Amino acid sequence: MGASGKFCFTSSNPDVIQLPGVTYPIFHAFLQYIYTGQTQILEEQLGALRDLSLQFEVMPLIKQCEDIIDRFKLNKKLFDSGRKVEISHPCSLPQRFTVFPFGLPIDVQRLKQWLSTGEYSDVEIYIDGHGIVARSHKLILSLWCAAFTKMFTNGMCESNSSKICLRDTSVDAFTEMLHFMYSGELSLQDSTDMGSLLLQILLLADQFGVAPLLQECCKTILECLSEDTVCSILQVISSIPSCKSLEEACERKFSKHFDYCTTVNTDFVFLDEATFSDILQCPNLTVTSEERILDAILLWVMEASDLLGWEAVDTILKTSTPEILFGERLQSVNMLFPLVRFPLMPITLLKKLEKSNLSIQIPVFEELVMEAMKYSVSKMTQPGSNQNVRFQHRQSTFKEFQYICDGDNNGILYFAGTSYGKHQWVNPVLSKKITVTASSPASRFTDPKALVSRTYQGTSFAGPRVEDGKNCSWWMVDIGEDHQLMCNYYTLRQDGSSAFMRSWALQGSLDGKNWTNLRVHDNDQTICKPGQYVSWPVNGPTALFPFRFFRVVLIGPTTSDSGPWNLCICFLELYGYFHM
């Protein structure tokens, strides 16, 4: 009641409010509105209900009564003595009408103040090892949590106690849950450990059965889900049935970035078998090669702390056994190895696997490799293989384009010029397979098609522009809406000028707006001659991210005095794993 208006409780009898002259129907409608957000009352009693609301300053009810009375005055035909009028509190967030305190005429700021000051509190909450963490109100706790309701009403000692002591509970997470109970909103401050705290709150919401908070946590996690957080989230939520949709979203995210999630670190080895198996069986699993999947399975069954390839594991098996190396997860290989599509592996790799210790010591591995060898040699579909996924190419796979030498024909921009291997090369800008743009308008010496023409240009540059208050120049390539590239190498060629770059970056983007640095060059002296080819690898985790847009961007002046911000290159080529 105190959160809905101004109720003056006398010091002599704080539990009693005197209401002389107020009839029961009026008082009942008044309380019903406060506690439920809606009520019914006879039309002729609207004035009395408004007066009672004025007395205690329940402002939403005052306004609604006056609005209804005014409508009756304007149109007396609406007035019907003896008919009941329905009054409902307008919810500030209609989509959350059923969540306390939305849908009720309550001053949320006043509620939050009471939580902060402990005013009107009737229960103290202690967390073992931290002392008292809050002075709360049993009614509000009971509205949200059935466990608290039972605790306060079961007739046991807790019902009469004014103290609650909790164990094995995060203070920060419980504080956030209390704040949600009083405000109906999750209000986390951005911080480096926000993701960890959010997961603790989610676990607490599941433990106490606060479903709206759990849903809000899931929604927030989905909004900030990334390749770096997906493993830690899956480890927490896989045991929570009500988080199934979030779990499936995480599995899709993992499968889409399988190379990254299994190469940056070994956190994925802590996933349970069911979750890891679901990821491996995801229809849209995107991976650069089946060898990557084999490596990941071996790391998982080993519960490895270091990143190893299958060859390193095979070497360990020279002096060990599968029982020792894989331990309790040894039985899982019978279920996981068949998820590797061995028939899609190159014959050279299969021959290595055939002679490996893995084949010698693990029967199911040997059987799968032999099956793949027969398929590879015969080049014919095995009986029933149309139904066997091991013989089917994945929907989402990458084709490798490996850098051989400067100016070679192995890059993806050259490949686009052949309509992806369908005919002789033509300029991919002219055939509209890719789009090239520059930081300055197109002109005789800023010609997008010239950058991929494979013909030396004496003068070819992108002029400067101001972005975020800084000078920059760039050439950008869009490889197409349905295409992505994990770039692991790139080649440039200086035009005929002596405006040599010294500080620049190769960047990738999914939308052409938000950019990720793939390789940054700071005072790089490599380019020193007109017409010079130069190439560099892209290393680290960013080489495992697929992007649609790529650009070479000048982040510092060139060696030219006359045009220090002209980006003077006449050729660009990209290499890596290409998704068509």
UniProtKB/TrEMBL annotation:
InterPro entries documented for this protein: BACK, BTB/POZ_dom, FA58C, Galactose-bd-like_sf, SKP1/BTB/POZ_sf
Pathway(s) served: Protein modification; protein ubiquitination
Transmembrane segments: none
Domain of life: Eukaryota
SMART domains: BACK, BTB
Domain BTB: 121-190
Function in brief: May act as a substrate-specific adapter of an E3 ubiquitin-protein ligase complex (CUL3-RBX1-BTB) which mediates the ubiquitination and subsequent proteasomal degradation of target proteins.
Protein name: BTB domain-containing protein
